What does this fold into?
Amino acid sequence: MKPLLVIQHLEREHTGVFSEVLDRQPAPRRLVRTYAGEAVPADPGGFSGLLVMGGLMNVDQAGLYPHLTQEMRLIRLAHREGVPVLGICLGAQLAAAALGARVYQGEVKEIGWYEVELSPGAGTDPLFGGFPGRFRVLQWHGQTFDLPAGATRLASSRSYLNQAFRCGSCWGIQFHLEADGPLVRCWLEAGSDELAASPGVDRDEILAGIASYEQNCLRLGRELFERFIGVVKDAADGWAHGAVSE
It folds into this structure.
């Protein structure tokens, strides 16, 4: 099986609980750390799937971070060729932009534990089908996006209509089901300046929320990523037998 490509934009924006799922898989993976200057591959054909993680930069900052343009091109090609893609936060925004949708500043920042509600389209989705209709997740973003043409909305929150979507073999998720307690604490420490400049964001409330919400989020995160790996394996089997992916 071809390796799964993981794109990581910051050292602290790693795969979190998704690593537990990856560690149980016999399939190889390739990690590209753009923050360390590692190059984004040009061809998705050498990979079984793409996992694109979050980061502090925005899609419209490609002039400062040229790898963003390269990632969007890679996602666009992967979508065209049926290679499964999962984008988290910045990764979701890059996926939306790669597929022709607008990415822009939201009316408010979501930083903390927020409730998301699944959309009707999530009921039969390979990743979200059977999930609770509402659950509370960790959010840390100020950008949002429109849905790409032909995409299905999978989840929304009170402030952000598009929290998750699927478009063919590509999924984008704004929230962080990969983040465990230590990772949340790391982000709070590293993001202290942003927290201080964000009205209504309460660091102590976010810390307290770890005890209330972490375990459920991690359970859902493991389930979601296991399902994504299943999609990746199914696509790889299809290619091996000459099938045409969606």
Q: What stands out?
A: The chain has one domain: 4-240. Strands lie at 4-8, 29-33, 49-52, 85-88, 103-118, 134-145, 152-156, 164-167, 170-173. The first strand starts at residue 4 and ends at 8. The mean pLDDT is 94.
